[in-house]
Amino acid sequence: MSQFSSEDEAELQYLLRQLLKSTKDRISGAPSIECAEEILLHLEETDKKFHNYELVRYLRQHVDRSLGALVEAETELGAGGDAGASAHDIHAVTRRTRDSAEYKQMMQTLKNTMSLVVESLINKFEEDQLRKEETYRDNLPGASEGRFNDNCSDSDSSFNHVSKGKQLQALAEQLDSSQPKEVRWEALQKLCCAPPSDVLSCETWNSLRTSLSAVLDDRDPDLILKFFAKTSSSSPFNLTREIYSSLAKSLEGYFLSHKLSLPIGSDGIDVTRPDISRLLKQMRLINDFQKEMPSFWIRHPEKYMEEVIESTFSLLSVHPDLGLASPGTEKALEPVYLLALLDIKATWFNKWMHSYYSRAVIFRLLERKYKSLIVAAVQQCLQHLSDCEHRSPQTSGSSQWSIYTRSELEYAFFVHSLCVLGKVLIYTNGRKLFPIKIRKHKDLYSLTDLVVTLINIMYQHPQPPRTDPSHTVSLAPRSLVTELLWMLCEQTESAAECIYQSPVIETLLAPLIRLLNGEQVSPAGSLTHIADVLARIASTDRGLALFLNDKSLDLSSSKGHIIVQFTQRLLDKDLPSLGRWEMSPAVCGAFLFACRQMYNTCEGLQILRPYGLHSCIAAALKEVPRVVSPISGPSLIWEETLQDSLLHFAATPKGLLLLQSTGALDHCVAYMYSRFIKKLQVSRCEKFGYGVMVTQVAATAPGVMALLNSGYVQELVVKLWSVLECGREDLRVVHPKSTPMDPIDRSCLKSFLALVNLLSSGASVWALLRGQPLPQREAYPLREVPSTIADLMDRLIAVDSDAKINSLFNYEQSHTFGLRLLCVLCCDLDSFLLLESQYALCSMLLLRQKENVTEPAEAQGQLILDRLSVERNHLLVRVCAVGGPSERRLPPRALQEGPDPYPWPMFLSYPSAPPQCYTLDAAMLPQSKQGKILTSKCAGTHARTHARTHARTHAGTHLWVIMNMNVFIMCELFPRYGRSLGLLKDEGTEELALLLKHSHLFLAAQRATTHPSILTATDWLAATLFLMMAGDGERARRWLVDFSSLLCSAFLWPARMHSSVHLPAPVAASGIPPVYWCTAHYVEMLLKAEVPLVHSAFRMSGFTPSQICLQWLNQCFWNYLDWPEVCHYVSTCVLMGPDYQVYVCVAVLKHMQPDILLHTQAQDLQVYLKVSQRPHRPPHLTSPCCTSTQGVCQYGAVQGLGGVLCMGGSYLSGQTHR
């Protein structure tokens, strides 16, 4: 079918009309006819509904009817009988079809028919339009007068009663500047009543726009401004651009021709004056355009946006020549003054600089043509500084609201310039505009010169000329400059080029140095702002290094020392040149915050510790009055400031020891808990919450007891129980809660990780659970919520009765949660020994395992394989099979697919050995003899260099009796491990027990005080030496006695330094071991310098490297490294020095970096580090410490880390002379 009937033409006409209605919005939004044609031509590419239009469907059916048979014939001919056709065949068929006579006839017929349809539509549209106009003209009185009505609209307007083009042409002629004012006014009124779309789409718009620009020079341009505002809101961007350019050029010409001047002296500019009011209205409209245009100019060609920006810069760069403009003489009023009055903080420029699309054009124009704008802004900052230095600052402006004095206009221009410069400086291309040439400056003006100028402005009087209570602080020079400097500090590149320069830092520290030297500083009120800027600088890594290590000033100490010295003297009120108000708590708190950015890092605390700032803060805290009264608000704020400053010492291991020594640990932790439950931000420079600090505090016994006393532990347990068992009370139960598929549901993961962080350290587990029996009641009410760790273990872990099972709403999920938590706890061998000796958890788990059979009454019942039985089997194998990653096999925690879902045997006996498949055969470990060789060399070295001492004592026997259960468990597990390695031939149990007893008695004689509540009484080094000496207990005892004379023993033998007489009394009483506050401290410091990604991963996860390293070092890497590597670790630290403890830990963490980053993203880093069974070294390497020392020793040699670590500060005095 190639011909169209009359019915087909009518149907096509209807379908075409429907298509035009559907695309009306797209076509009406086109700025020109050409654009409308482009929209229709590319409608298939831009409209998702294109193939659903009825016209498109009709045409497709017509093509199928006309060419269907031809295409099928060509396809069969081209395929040649094949099942499929290639792309080449398809193109060939298409080409032959388009060349055929049928296709040409169809296209010609379709074109002719569509032409007739379109022509018919046009004629019908014109008839309908004329009919509407006649009807409207008959019904409208006064229409013959040719005036427009005010109630006209875009859709149905009285403007259509005459020819649009002729009418607008006539209006353009009437608006010409040669016409009388009355004629122009009447024509403008008519134009304002016309629909903007009709005005903008007419052919005479260009001439009309020229006439409208001339009208702007009249005395009362309100009507034309209203027309521009109305037109711009409904016009496309290209026409808005023309309107904006017209306004800008009109203003530019006015300023150049009239040459207005700024007032002199006390005179001011009255904004109600007609000429000034007219200029302000035009500038206000321009400013509104400036703020709105960035929201849609990205959708248009760049040349439109460039024209808008260039016309703006051209207007702002107008400088009418009135002669020399020196202070006290006449100066021209420039457009930028009016723009600053309307938008003093340059909001328009901030919006323009937001996207790269416009920012690139701005910087290109500034560099090529309009750098004078940057010069003028800098010149205004210099002028403001000069005015502040040579005259007394004005604290108030004109008493009349409508009059602005010259100083107020200059100040508005200064604030506007400052905001513009701040946005320019944070971008690289903006900083490339410098250096610039400044009037009255011989040399080029650099970035550093500008920042120094801004800092000097910050030192001047802070009040703006016109004191408005709502804007006084936000418009004060100090606040503005401080905000700008903060902005520069946040960007790495801008901070490096603008802030981290010696002249800038010297200018910031100059007032502090003068005050330390007893000189007067005027004004001293800028100290708070100086401290805020210094804090922002110190909060970045490069800024911190600049403060701690750079000594470019003419002083013997670094910049950080100057800040700490000044803060210390502020706290002691030892600055005679400062008044009482200037040493207020607000100033002291600001500088304490700056110091906090340094001492809450390991390297910062290491350098600033000699100043004893923690003691000064603690002394100031004791002087704060404790009386609570209605007027004690400032005292309470000062007390919280001091507590917060002391609390941040706990961010590092050594800082926690210093905090403990002040006696304010409990108060600071209570303060932290009060902010923690309110979910308050740590500080304005901290990106994370209190998670890391809580974990750091929980690593020690005193810290975890402080958390317990503050209520944090109870809050954590109650919150966990609410999400695990209760659920949200405010949630309506419309559908049942879905059954969790993961062992630990996502809703409980946060509480689980918080518990792991709290109980990660063996010392914290001993402090919370030692001597705490499980409740073991006959009934557990459903509404009873546990409040302690012991209660939680009783309800979730020791589920050994029907009453406990029935008290759980989600028994399987809750018990799995408890078993997973117990698995993490038992990875710390100290924690495992306490839990097993006190609660007999293994026996309880075995009993539950044996009861989990199909027929409990019969002995031959088959074991049920479920989540709990598999979890219990994994846990029992983990705690009973000792060894490194390649020395034991742990069963999986999930069933496998296939006929045998769990081929691993169940562990059903304790304390006997686990099934053989979980441990390696001794024949597979021939390399274990290497440990014996290394140990013999170590023992010979000590025998040659130190006199053997043989001290025996029976003091402390009662402690040995208390801990004999732990020794029994050790003597059951670890000799078995030695026999599997081929190190022990006989039982070895009695020999190990005797060695541990002698070691305990030997160390008890060196303890000044005893703290059984926090004493772990587990000597892992002695157990390690027992295996290294092949079970020779006497030889191991003599080695330990000789080894105790070395300073290295204080770190490699943690049990020796517990409450030791060789430590100062406060340190010994703190219960914090040197391995934590010294070794772990340096691990964190070195990790941040060498492996920053791992250090950041720990902070993001809320965990600390010191916690996992403390566990590794306390138990000599047992269950984490294979036996040969354990021997390498002990031997290396003995022969090379205790600083190799640090290197080993850093090397292991560096090797684990990919996995650490992966598990940080998965939010289970703590669990991975505790329970991971992946080897911590590549299989082909012998030892991680041997591979690490090649690079890390060089760092230690440069930094002197080994010597500092061995000395241990002043806490281990007298050890080197024994």
From TrEMBL:
Domain of life (superkingdom): Eukaryota
GO CC, one annotated term: cytoplasm
Cross-referenced InterPro entries: BROMI_C, BROMI_M, BROMI_N, PHAF1/BROMI, Rab-GAP_TBC_sf
Ranges where the BROMI middle region domain occurs: 167-807
Domain BROMI C-terminal Rab TBC-like: 825-934, 973-1170
Gene Ontology BP terms: axoneme assembly; non-motile cilium assembly
Domain BROMI N-terminal: 12-134
UniProt-listed SUPFAM superfamilies: Ypt/Rab-GAP domain of gyp1p (SSF47923)
UniProt-recorded name of the protein: TBC1 domain family, member 32
Gene that encodes it: TBC1D32
